[in-house]
Amino acid sequence: MPDMQQRAVNVFPAGISNGEYGLPEDKIVVMEKAHGCTLWDTAGREYLDFSMAWGSCLVGHARPEVVEAVTAQAAHGSNYAYLNTHVLALAEEIQRISPAAERLRFCASGTEATMYCQRLARAYSSKPKILKFEGAYHGANEAGVTSLFPTKTPAYPAPELTSAGTPAMADYLLVAPYNDLDRARQIITENAGDLAGVIMEPLQRCTAPLPGFLEGIRDICNETGVLLIFDEVVTGFRLAYGGAQEYYGVEPDLIAYGKAMGGGYPIGAFGGRAQIMEWVSEHRIGGDDYVWMASTLGGNPISTAAANAALGVFRREGTYERLHDLGRYLRDGLAKVLMQHQITAQIIGDGPLAQVVFSADPVFDYRSTKKGDSTKGRALMLGLFERGVFLNPMGTKLYLSVAHDEAVCDAMLERFDDTLSAID
Ligand code: PMP
Fold first, then answer.
1. Helices H / strands E in the chain, number of each
2. Which regions of the chain carry the CATH code 3.40.640.10?
3. Which residue is closest in CA terms to ligand 1's atom 11?
4. pTM of the full predicted structure?
5. Eight-state DSSP code of residue 245
6. How remote is the CA of residue 139 from the centroid of ligand 1, in Å?
7. Fold of 77-314
8. pLDDT in tens, 197-250
9. Where in the chain is the domain with CATH 3.90.1150.10?
10. Which CATH class, in words, describes the domain spanning 3-63+320-423?
């Protein structure tokens, strides 16, 4: 085994530093640098990046405006764990474009942001349970990882513990099928006395909400006095500058951000109605109306300088038309190649996101996605990886960025074609 692979395997479980990938040991590579949408490993091999750091580098790798902002701040210190000019400007910008975020706070990851939203919902409502939609990921917090890849698919609303070590979820988490408004209404109504909040990815991974679904959930939450939490860690600044809230025109009570907002630097933020957010005010410590919130790296001046630079790029005329056009170009291209191979599959996604599900039937929730041929899906992902398309072979989501163009998509589609010939 080459030296780098051996070193990775000796020190990291599965040879991976930060989770996921699930690569066979002989496929592990070590990355050295990235520019735009290209990555290079330590052996000098070039990859077309269709992961973009799980979507956090929507602005592109080493985008000059971001590099300049980070470099300028780095000379003046990386963190004060306190208010600084960059975090203030970023918070004002989020407040300006995000109707749900009357007040906000910063943390260092999407996992923390969604965790705080759940904690606030529980505290504010004095109710213990959260409802999520099956198959949704809300970060590595306990609710985030439950019923993530259920295999036994228990009857709703019972959760399945995808991760060991999360026993409380069996009692405190309810699960509903995404895009099934009637079932969601029934579960929410029956449990309203115990249910603090509904957390959802407005676009669940790559599965779009059916017309009226988000509006319906909003109405049910209003009728039952249950808080609605949007996990916009992926959709924020990606589907539109104002995220899913703007794109779908539905406003939650609490909202979580991360990923793309940070221009590739560690970031998370959560916001909500002022009345709810007031619960994290330190003036309340000692009272039973106080929610603990603190984050050493939250809102640090490096990440927030990077974020302000990235947002400046996103605000440029035409950014979102371009991202949507390119997403369509990629999804159409994938569909065309599949047709040439006479393979029936569903191409899902919206904006700069795409996913291939090897299923003949439409995909609208976790169980319909699960019907797809996952062995073939895995073979496709590994085949692309071997052919120099960098992606996470565990999640079949493909991420585009501001740095991608049609030529990069064409180069990827050629490798897609080649992979299908090999695995068919
Ligand atoms: N929510 C969603 C929808 C996500 O996709 C992710 C990360 N993939 C998270 C939350 C967690 O973000 P992080 O990895 O920054 O903790």
1. 15, 14
2. 77-314
3. 139
4. 0.98
5. I
6. 4
7. Aspartate Aminotransferase; domain 2 (3.40.640)
8. 999 999 999 999 999 999 999 999 999 999 999 999 999 999 999 999 999 999
9. 3-63+320-423
10. alpha beta
